[in-house]
Design a protein that fits this description.
Blueprint (H helix, E strand, L loop, with lengths): L1 H16 L1 H35 L2 E6 L5 H9 L3 E3 L8 H6 L5 E5 L3 H6 L6 E5 L7 H24 L20 H39 L2 H5 L5 H32 L6 H10 L2 H28 L3 H8 L2 H11 L17 H12 L4 H27 L1 H4 L3
Length: 397
Protein backbone atom coordinates (compact mmCIF):
# COMPACT_ATOMS: atom_id res chain seq x y z
CA UNK A 1 0.00 0.00 0.00
CA UNK A 2 2.96 2.34 0.65
CA UNK A 3 4.05 2.02 -2.98
CA UNK A 4 0.51 2.71 -4.15
CA UNK A 5 0.57 5.90 -2.07
CA UNK A 6 3.91 6.90 -3.64
CA UNK A 7 2.49 6.29 -7.14
CA UNK A 8 -0.62 8.24 -6.18
CA UNK A 9 1.40 11.29 -5.02
CA UNK A 10 3.62 11.17 -8.10
CA UNK A 11 0.67 10.96 -10.50
CA UNK A 12 -1.35 13.66 -8.79
CA UNK A 13 1.61 16.04 -9.02
CA UNK A 14 1.91 15.30 -12.73
CA UNK A 15 -1.83 15.79 -13.22
CA UNK A 16 -1.87 19.13 -11.41
CA UNK A 17 0.89 20.37 -13.73
CA UNK A 18 -1.39 19.73 -16.70
CA UNK A 19 -3.40 22.84 -17.50
CA UNK A 20 -6.09 20.83 -19.29
CA UNK A 21 -6.69 18.81 -16.14
CA UNK A 22 -7.07 21.94 -13.98
CA UNK A 23 -9.33 23.47 -16.61
CA UNK A 24 -11.65 20.46 -16.71
CA UNK A 25 -11.57 19.80 -12.94
CA UNK A 26 -11.99 23.28 -11.51
CA UNK A 27 -12.53 26.08 -14.00
CA UNK A 28 -15.13 24.41 -16.22
CA UNK A 29 -17.59 23.26 -13.51
CA UNK A 30 -17.09 26.37 -11.37
CA UNK A 31 -17.88 28.72 -14.24
CA UNK A 32 -20.00 26.59 -16.53
CA UNK A 33 -22.66 25.45 -14.04
CA UNK A 34 -23.65 28.97 -12.88
CA UNK A 35 -23.47 30.10 -16.50
CA UNK A 36 -25.79 27.30 -17.65
CA UNK A 37 -28.28 27.76 -14.80
CA UNK A 38 -28.20 31.53 -15.13
CA UNK A 39 -28.44 31.36 -18.91
CA UNK A 40 -31.48 29.07 -18.86
CA UNK A 41 -33.18 31.19 -16.22
CA UNK A 42 -32.40 34.41 -18.09
CA UNK A 43 -33.62 33.03 -21.42
CA UNK A 44 -36.88 31.78 -19.92
CA UNK A 45 -37.48 35.06 -18.11
CA UNK A 46 -36.66 37.08 -21.22
CA UNK A 47 -39.00 35.02 -23.39
CA UNK A 48 -41.84 35.35 -20.89
CA UNK A 49 -41.29 39.09 -20.43
CA UNK A 50 -41.11 39.63 -24.18
CA UNK A 51 -44.28 37.60 -24.73
CA UNK A 52 -46.12 39.50 -22.00
CA UNK A 53 -44.98 42.88 -23.29
CA UNK A 54 -45.83 42.17 -26.92
CA UNK A 55 -49.35 43.09 -28.05
CA UNK A 56 -51.32 40.27 -29.64
CA UNK A 57 -52.43 41.25 -33.13
CA UNK A 58 -55.82 39.65 -33.71
CA UNK A 59 -58.86 40.15 -35.88
CA UNK A 60 -62.45 39.90 -34.69
CA UNK A 61 -64.99 38.43 -37.11
CA UNK A 62 -68.61 38.92 -36.03
CA UNK A 63 -68.66 42.25 -34.26
CA UNK A 64 -72.40 42.69 -34.84
CA UNK A 65 -73.18 39.22 -33.45
CA UNK A 66 -71.34 39.85 -30.15
CA UNK A 67 -70.82 43.59 -29.54
CA UNK A 68 -70.22 43.14 -25.81
CA UNK A 69 -67.46 40.63 -26.43
CA UNK A 70 -65.90 42.90 -29.06
CA UNK A 71 -65.93 45.75 -26.55
CA UNK A 72 -64.10 43.58 -24.02
CA UNK A 73 -61.38 42.85 -26.55
CA UNK A 74 -61.22 46.51 -27.55
CA UNK A 75 -60.77 47.61 -23.93
CA UNK A 76 -58.09 45.02 -23.24
CA UNK A 77 -54.71 46.74 -23.70
CA UNK A 78 -53.01 43.42 -24.50
CA UNK A 79 -54.59 43.29 -27.98
CA UNK A 80 -54.28 45.19 -31.21
CA UNK A 81 -57.43 44.63 -33.25
CA UNK A 82 -56.90 44.43 -37.00
CA UNK A 83 -60.05 45.32 -38.92
CA UNK A 84 -61.34 44.28 -42.35
CA UNK A 85 -59.52 40.95 -42.56
CA UNK A 86 -61.19 38.54 -45.02
CA UNK A 87 -62.24 35.27 -43.46
CA UNK A 88 -60.34 33.22 -46.03
CA UNK A 89 -57.11 35.15 -45.37
CA UNK A 90 -56.88 34.50 -41.64
CA UNK A 91 -54.89 31.26 -41.87
CA UNK A 92 -52.38 32.71 -44.32
CA UNK A 93 -51.88 35.87 -42.25
CA UNK A 94 -51.27 33.84 -39.09
CA UNK A 95 -48.78 31.62 -40.94
CA UNK A 96 -46.97 34.76 -42.16
CA UNK A 97 -47.11 36.21 -38.61
CA UNK A 98 -49.13 39.22 -39.72
CA UNK A 99 -51.67 38.07 -37.16
CA UNK A 100 -51.28 36.20 -33.89
CA UNK A 101 -54.84 34.93 -33.88
CA UNK A 102 -58.48 35.50 -34.74
CA UNK A 103 -61.85 35.37 -32.98
CA UNK A 104 -64.74 34.17 -35.19
CA UNK A 105 -68.28 34.49 -33.87
CA UNK A 106 -70.91 32.22 -35.46
CA UNK A 107 -73.66 33.97 -37.46
CA UNK A 108 -76.39 32.43 -35.34
CA UNK A 109 -74.70 33.42 -32.07
CA UNK A 110 -77.29 36.08 -31.00
CA UNK A 111 -80.21 33.75 -31.84
CA UNK A 112 -78.71 30.80 -29.95
CA UNK A 113 -77.76 32.89 -26.93
CA UNK A 114 -81.21 34.46 -26.91
CA UNK A 115 -82.70 30.98 -26.52
CA UNK A 116 -80.38 30.34 -23.55
CA UNK A 117 -78.41 27.80 -25.54
CA UNK A 118 -74.71 27.42 -26.16
CA UNK A 119 -73.27 29.76 -28.81
CA UNK A 120 -70.19 28.98 -30.86
CA UNK A 121 -67.05 31.13 -30.92
CA UNK A 122 -63.93 29.92 -32.69
CA UNK A 123 -60.41 31.08 -31.96
CA UNK A 124 -57.69 30.53 -34.54
CA UNK A 125 -54.01 30.52 -33.60
CA UNK A 126 -50.73 28.77 -34.31
CA UNK A 127 -49.74 26.36 -31.56
CA UNK A 128 -46.02 26.56 -32.32
CA UNK A 129 -45.92 30.26 -31.45
CA UNK A 130 -43.88 31.02 -28.32
CA UNK A 131 -45.86 30.32 -25.15
CA UNK A 132 -49.17 30.42 -27.13
CA UNK A 133 -49.72 33.87 -25.59
CA UNK A 134 -52.40 34.99 -28.08
CA UNK A 135 -54.42 31.79 -27.62
CA UNK A 136 -54.37 32.07 -23.82
CA UNK A 137 -55.32 35.73 -23.91
CA UNK A 138 -58.23 35.22 -26.34
CA UNK A 139 -59.52 32.25 -24.33
CA UNK A 140 -59.28 34.27 -21.12
CA UNK A 141 -61.43 37.12 -22.50
CA UNK A 142 -64.00 34.71 -23.97
CA UNK A 143 -64.23 32.81 -20.66
CA UNK A 144 -64.82 36.11 -18.88
CA UNK A 145 -67.60 36.92 -21.35
CA UNK A 146 -69.03 33.44 -20.84
CA UNK A 147 -69.16 34.07 -17.10
CA UNK A 148 -71.08 37.30 -17.73
CA UNK A 149 -73.65 35.51 -19.90
CA UNK A 150 -74.09 32.67 -17.42
CA UNK A 151 -74.53 35.08 -14.52
CA UNK A 152 -77.12 37.05 -16.53
CA UNK A 153 -79.08 33.87 -17.22
CA UNK A 154 -78.95 32.77 -13.59
CA UNK A 155 -80.13 36.19 -12.41
CA UNK A 156 -82.88 36.51 -15.03
CA UNK A 157 -84.25 33.02 -14.47
CA UNK A 158 -83.83 33.26 -10.70
CA UNK A 159 -81.79 30.06 -10.60
CA UNK A 160 -79.41 28.73 -8.03
CA UNK A 161 -75.79 28.96 -9.18
CA UNK A 162 -75.04 25.51 -7.77
CA UNK A 163 -77.60 24.07 -10.23
CA UNK A 164 -74.99 24.38 -12.98
CA UNK A 165 -72.29 22.67 -11.00
CA UNK A 166 -73.58 19.32 -9.76
CA UNK A 167 -70.09 18.30 -8.69
CA UNK A 168 -67.61 20.63 -7.02
CA UNK A 169 -64.07 19.38 -7.55
CA UNK A 170 -61.66 20.41 -4.84
CA UNK A 171 -58.02 19.79 -5.67
CA UNK A 172 -55.74 19.01 -2.77
CA UNK A 173 -52.09 18.33 -3.47
CA UNK A 174 -50.54 16.54 -0.52
CA UNK A 175 -47.02 16.66 -1.96
CA UNK A 176 -44.75 19.00 -0.02
CA UNK A 177 -42.74 21.73 -1.69
CA UNK A 178 -39.61 19.67 -1.04
CA UNK A 179 -41.10 16.64 -2.79
CA UNK A 180 -42.17 18.70 -5.81
CA UNK A 181 -38.83 20.45 -6.14
CA UNK A 182 -37.02 17.18 -5.46
CA UNK A 183 -38.77 15.41 -8.30
CA UNK A 184 -38.10 18.32 -10.65
CA UNK A 185 -34.49 18.95 -9.62
CA UNK A 186 -33.78 15.23 -9.34
CA UNK A 187 -34.47 14.90 -13.03
CA UNK A 188 -31.55 17.07 -14.09
CA UNK A 189 -29.29 17.41 -11.02
CA UNK A 190 -27.61 14.03 -11.69
CA UNK A 191 -26.39 15.48 -14.98
CA UNK A 192 -24.11 17.77 -13.02
CA UNK A 193 -22.13 15.18 -11.13
CA UNK A 194 -22.46 12.44 -13.75
CA UNK A 195 -21.31 14.52 -16.72
CA UNK A 196 -18.81 16.66 -14.83
CA UNK A 197 -17.56 13.62 -12.92
CA UNK A 198 -16.92 11.94 -16.26
CA UNK A 199 -15.30 15.06 -17.72
CA UNK A 200 -13.13 15.54 -14.64
CA UNK A 201 -11.88 11.95 -14.82
CA UNK A 202 -11.42 11.94 -18.58
CA UNK A 203 -8.34 14.13 -19.03
CA UNK A 204 -6.28 12.71 -16.13
CA UNK A 205 -7.28 9.21 -17.22
CA UNK A 206 -6.19 9.82 -20.80
CA UNK A 207 -2.96 11.46 -19.68
CA UNK A 208 -1.95 8.77 -17.16
CA UNK A 209 -2.32 6.04 -19.76
CA UNK A 210 -2.00 7.09 -23.38
CA UNK A 211 -0.25 10.33 -22.41
CA UNK A 212 2.54 8.47 -20.64
CA UNK A 213 2.92 6.16 -23.62
CA UNK A 214 3.52 9.15 -25.89
CA UNK A 215 5.95 10.80 -23.47
CA UNK A 216 7.83 7.52 -22.95
CA UNK A 217 7.54 7.73 -19.16
CA UNK A 218 5.49 4.55 -18.74
CA UNK A 219 8.59 2.35 -18.96
CA UNK A 220 10.22 4.33 -16.14
CA UNK A 221 7.40 3.71 -13.68
CA UNK A 222 7.18 0.05 -14.73
CA UNK A 223 10.83 -0.41 -13.81
CA UNK A 224 10.16 0.76 -10.24
CA UNK A 225 9.77 -1.73 -7.33
CA UNK A 226 6.01 -1.14 -7.37
CA UNK A 227 3.88 -4.00 -8.65
CA UNK A 228 1.50 -3.61 -11.59
CA UNK A 229 -1.44 -3.64 -9.18
CA UNK A 230 0.06 -0.86 -7.06
CA UNK A 231 0.76 1.23 -10.16
CA UNK A 232 -2.79 0.81 -11.45
CA UNK A 233 -4.29 1.61 -8.04
CA UNK A 234 -2.18 4.77 -7.75
CA UNK A 235 -3.24 5.98 -11.18
CA UNK A 236 -6.84 4.92 -10.60
CA UNK A 237 -7.10 6.87 -7.31
CA UNK A 238 -5.83 10.04 -8.99
CA UNK A 239 -8.34 9.74 -11.82
CA UNK A 240 -11.21 9.01 -9.42
CA UNK A 241 -10.22 11.91 -7.16
CA UNK A 242 -10.26 14.25 -10.15
CA UNK A 243 -13.76 13.07 -11.07
CA UNK A 244 -15.10 13.43 -7.52
CA UNK A 245 -13.61 16.91 -7.05
CA UNK A 246 -15.02 18.08 -10.40
CA UNK A 247 -18.49 16.77 -9.51
CA UNK A 248 -18.40 18.49 -6.11
CA UNK A 249 -17.26 21.77 -7.63
CA UNK A 250 -20.16 21.52 -10.08
CA UNK A 251 -22.56 21.12 -7.15
CA UNK A 252 -20.96 24.10 -5.41
CA UNK A 253 -21.45 26.09 -8.61
CA UNK A 254 -25.15 25.17 -8.52
CA UNK A 255 -25.43 26.22 -4.86
CA UNK A 256 -23.76 29.53 -5.68
CA UNK A 257 -25.94 30.11 -8.75
CA UNK A 258 -29.22 29.49 -6.89
CA UNK A 259 -28.37 32.07 -4.22
CA UNK A 260 -27.81 34.73 -6.88
CA UNK A 261 -31.39 34.72 -8.19
CA UNK A 262 -33.47 37.29 -6.28
CA UNK A 263 -36.58 36.29 -8.28
CA UNK A 264 -36.84 32.96 -6.43
CA UNK A 265 -39.45 33.25 -3.62
CA UNK A 266 -37.82 33.07 -0.16
CA UNK A 267 -39.86 30.03 0.94
CA UNK A 268 -38.80 28.07 -2.17
CA UNK A 269 -35.19 29.26 -1.86
CA UNK A 270 -35.15 28.02 1.73
CA UNK A 271 -36.29 24.55 0.61
CA UNK A 272 -33.71 24.50 -2.21
CA UNK A 273 -30.87 25.45 0.12
CA UNK A 274 -32.04 22.83 2.60
CA UNK A 275 -32.00 20.24 -0.18
CA UNK A 276 -28.43 21.25 -1.02
CA UNK A 277 -27.32 21.17 2.63
CA UNK A 278 -24.47 19.14 4.12
CA UNK A 279 -26.61 16.07 4.78
CA UNK A 280 -27.85 15.89 1.20
CA UNK A 281 -24.38 16.59 -0.20
CA UNK A 282 -23.04 13.71 1.90
CA UNK A 283 -25.75 11.36 0.63
CA UNK A 284 -25.12 12.36 -2.97
CA UNK A 285 -21.40 11.99 -2.35
CA UNK A 286 -22.01 8.33 -1.50
CA UNK A 287 -23.31 7.96 -5.06
CA UNK A 288 -20.60 10.09 -6.62
CA UNK A 289 -17.72 7.95 -5.33
CA UNK A 290 -18.77 4.63 -6.88
CA UNK A 291 -19.96 6.15 -10.17
CA UNK A 292 -16.69 8.10 -10.50
CA UNK A 293 -14.78 4.91 -9.64
CA UNK A 294 -16.59 3.17 -12.50
CA UNK A 295 -15.84 6.03 -14.90
CA UNK A 296 -12.19 6.16 -13.81
CA UNK A 297 -11.58 2.44 -14.27
CA UNK A 298 -13.22 2.42 -17.71
CA UNK A 299 -11.38 5.53 -18.91
CA UNK A 300 -8.05 4.31 -17.57
CA UNK A 301 -8.55 0.90 -19.24
CA UNK A 302 -9.26 2.48 -22.61
CA UNK A 303 -6.39 4.92 -22.14
CA UNK A 304 -3.95 2.08 -21.46
CA UNK A 305 -5.27 0.19 -24.49
CA UNK A 306 -4.93 3.18 -26.89
CA UNK A 307 -1.73 3.69 -28.85
CA UNK A 308 -1.79 7.50 -28.54
CA UNK A 309 -3.51 10.31 -26.71
CA UNK A 310 -5.47 11.18 -29.86
CA UNK A 311 -6.72 7.62 -30.27
CA UNK A 312 -7.71 7.52 -26.62
CA UNK A 313 -9.72 10.72 -27.06
CA UNK A 314 -11.52 9.31 -30.09
CA UNK A 315 -12.46 6.19 -28.08
CA UNK A 316 -13.49 7.87 -24.82
CA UNK A 317 -15.34 10.96 -26.11
CA UNK A 318 -18.31 9.04 -27.64
CA UNK A 319 -18.88 7.46 -24.21
CA UNK A 320 -20.41 10.74 -23.05
CA UNK A 321 -23.41 9.98 -25.28
CA UNK A 322 -23.80 6.54 -23.70
CA UNK A 323 -23.65 8.20 -20.27
CA UNK A 324 -26.29 10.83 -21.08
CA UNK A 325 -28.81 8.31 -22.43
CA UNK A 326 -29.59 6.46 -19.16
CA UNK A 327 -29.62 9.76 -17.27
CA UNK A 328 -32.25 11.07 -19.71
CA UNK A 329 -34.36 7.94 -19.19
CA UNK A 330 -34.41 8.77 -15.48
CA UNK A 331 -36.30 12.01 -16.20
CA UNK A 332 -39.14 10.27 -18.05
CA UNK A 333 -42.49 10.03 -16.26
CA UNK A 334 -43.28 6.59 -14.88
CA UNK A 335 -39.63 5.57 -14.45
CA UNK A 336 -39.15 4.91 -10.75
CA UNK A 337 -36.43 3.37 -8.60
CA UNK A 338 -37.28 -0.30 -8.04
CA UNK A 339 -35.55 -3.67 -7.76
CA UNK A 340 -34.80 -3.71 -11.51
CA UNK A 341 -33.84 -0.08 -12.20
CA UNK A 342 -31.59 -0.06 -9.11
CA UNK A 343 -29.29 -2.44 -11.00
CA UNK A 344 -28.97 -0.31 -14.15
CA UNK A 345 -25.77 1.80 -13.97
CA UNK A 346 -26.16 5.59 -14.22
CA UNK A 347 -29.95 5.25 -14.41
CA UNK A 348 -29.95 4.04 -10.80
CA UNK A 349 -27.90 7.08 -9.74
CA UNK A 350 -30.32 9.42 -11.51
CA UNK A 351 -33.39 7.83 -9.92
CA UNK A 352 -31.80 7.53 -6.48
CA UNK A 353 -30.83 11.21 -6.53
CA UNK A 354 -34.38 12.16 -7.46
CA UNK A 355 -35.82 10.22 -4.52
CA UNK A 356 -33.14 11.51 -2.14
CA UNK A 357 -33.95 15.13 -2.93
CA UNK A 358 -37.67 14.45 -2.60
CA UNK A 359 -37.12 12.66 0.72
CA UNK A 360 -38.88 9.52 -0.51
CA UNK A 361 -35.91 7.18 -0.96
CA UNK A 362 -36.50 3.49 -0.19
CA UNK A 363 -33.56 2.21 1.93
CA UNK A 364 -33.73 -1.25 0.33
CA UNK A 365 -33.46 0.15 -3.20
CA UNK A 366 -30.74 2.57 -2.11
CA UNK A 367 -28.69 -0.28 -0.66
CA UNK A 368 -29.15 -2.18 -3.92
CA UNK A 369 -27.83 0.87 -5.81
CA UNK A 370 -24.75 1.03 -3.58
CA UNK A 371 -24.04 -2.69 -3.96
CA UNK A 372 -24.51 -2.69 -7.73
CA UNK A 373 -22.29 0.39 -8.16
CA UNK A 374 -19.59 -1.07 -5.88
CA UNK A 375 -19.59 -4.36 -7.80
CA UNK A 376 -19.50 -2.53 -11.12
CA UNK A 377 -16.62 -0.31 -9.99
CA UNK A 378 -14.74 -3.34 -8.67
CA UNK A 379 -15.27 -5.25 -11.91
CA UNK A 380 -14.10 -2.28 -13.97
CA UNK A 381 -10.98 -1.92 -11.83
CA UNK A 382 -10.26 -5.66 -12.16
CA UNK A 383 -10.47 -5.36 -15.97
CA UNK A 384 -8.14 -2.36 -15.80
CA UNK A 385 -5.57 -4.32 -13.77
CA UNK A 386 -5.78 -7.27 -16.19
CA UNK A 387 -5.17 -4.97 -19.15
CA UNK A 388 -2.20 -3.39 -17.40
CA UNK A 389 -0.71 -6.87 -16.87
CA UNK A 390 -0.66 -7.54 -20.62
CA UNK A 391 2.57 -6.48 -22.35
CA UNK A 392 0.90 -6.44 -25.76
CA UNK A 393 -1.58 -3.89 -24.47
CA UNK A 394 0.94 -1.66 -22.66
CA UNK A 395 3.32 -1.52 -25.62
CA UNK A 396 0.74 -1.71 -28.37
CA UNK A 397 1.88 0.09 -31.54
Amino acid sequence: MRRTWIIFKKEIKDSLRDRRTILMMVVMPLLLVPAIIGGIFWIQTSIMEKAEAELSRITFIGRTQAPELYAMFEEDDRFTLIADVPLDSITVMIEQEELHGAVIVALDFPHVIGKDQQGKIEIVYKESDALETAEMRMAEVIEKYDSVLVYERITRLNLDEELFDAIAIEKKDIASVKEKLGKIAGGWLPYLFIIFGFMGAMYPGLDLGAGEKERGTLETILSSPASRLEIVLGKFLVVMLAGVITALIAMFGLYFAVQRFPEIPPEILEVILDMLGLKMVFLILTLIFPICAFFSAVILSLSIYAKSFKEAQSIVTPLSIAIIFPAVIGTLPGIELNLVTALVPILNVSLATKDMLAGTINPVYLMEVYISLALLAGLSLWVCVKMFDREETLFRS
